[in-house]
Amino acid sequence: MIDNPALDIAIGLAFTYGIYSLIATVATEIISTFLKLRGKNLKTTIIRMLDNGSDKKQVSKEPKTSANGKLDNDLSQKFLNQPEIRFLGRISRSGKERCPSYIKPATFARALLNTIDYPWSENTDLSTLKEKLTPDNPTHKLIINMLDEANGDIAKFKDLSAQWFSDTMDRASGWYKRKTQMITLIAAAIIVFPLNLNTIEISRKLSSDKVARMEMVEAAGTYIQTYSLVNRTNQDNLAKLDSLNDQMQILLAEAGKTESILNMDIQPKTPSDWFVYIFGCLLTVIALSLGAPFWFDLLSRFIKLRNTGVPEKSETKNNRQVRKVSVKI
What is the C-alpha to C-alpha distance for residues 245 and 174, in angstroms, rounded to an integer? Predict the structure, then answer.
């Protein structure tokens, strides 16, 4: 086992950042769940996909029909009214239907076929669907190209549609992260400043207090072994408020242990103290914005490095030197 104060300080900082960044992340998810941000983001993405890249947030309640039998330019409302999509969403207390927060690519592909009025009967020619689409419409043109590439194979068309949805949702995930980044920063600031999670003072505390440093290292090792699964939130758990609340309770308990070890109840008095307080807390806020996965991954690497002890190569080299000395004697 490596006894290196600098490594122990790094473990203490990474553990502190990981715990509180995870608290900020869970708080962000709770806020996003209340504000229905995931459902709104998914709805906006579908509108952009099916309505020629439109950024409009509202669609008409009733889809329009063309006199010549062709589909209207706005496919999004008809798509969202499909039973396999509608029944995935929740109904609010006021009775308003909510857009689901997540749709599987296979579900999107089937709903898209229903939107184009595919009859789902045997021996149906897939190419007849092109008659309902308008080549001048960019979205319709994209669907026509997929129909041509499928060459009458409905399974292949569904795969192409699902891949189109998956690729778009990968980009939409980036849009969602940018929307929630500000919420995460605000949550981090609300956590950091009242608790005086000052990176500079934490480093000083850990460097000067060996007992606190060892307690932090022990707490970090215990957490990694016991609650490693807590750090891995999947798509389903993010939509479950109860799961998020349970996770928050575990994290607050761990944060309480960290706070008692650090005992950072230091009130700034002089201008220099205020500068250190503000600058150190801002460093912590920036660190928390990097996300819990980054810090817990780094923490795991630090703990493994600390537990490795003397490298095997060095031991082999020392043994060879002992052997040489023994021969000389």
Answer: 25
CA 281, CA 192: separation in Å to the nearest integer? Answer: 6
- pLDDT tens digit string along 104-131? 999 999 999 988 888 776 666 777 788 8
User: pLDDT value at position 321?
Assistant: 45
- Buried/exposed code over 291-303 (b: 16+ C-beta within 10 A; e: otherwise): bbeebbebbbebb
**Could you state, in order of their start, the residue ranges of all structural domains in the chain?**
5-36+177-310, 38-172
Question: Would the pLDDT of 153 be above 90?
Answer: no
Q: Which of 16, 8, 6 is nearest to 285 (CA)?
A: 16
Tell me if 33 sits within 8 A of 239, measured CB to CB. Answer: yes
Q: What's the mean pLDDT when you consider all of the chain?
A: 79
Q: Is 241 within 8 Å of 30 (Cβ atoms)?
A: yes
Q: Which residues contact 282 (CB under 8 A, 6 or more apart)?
A: none
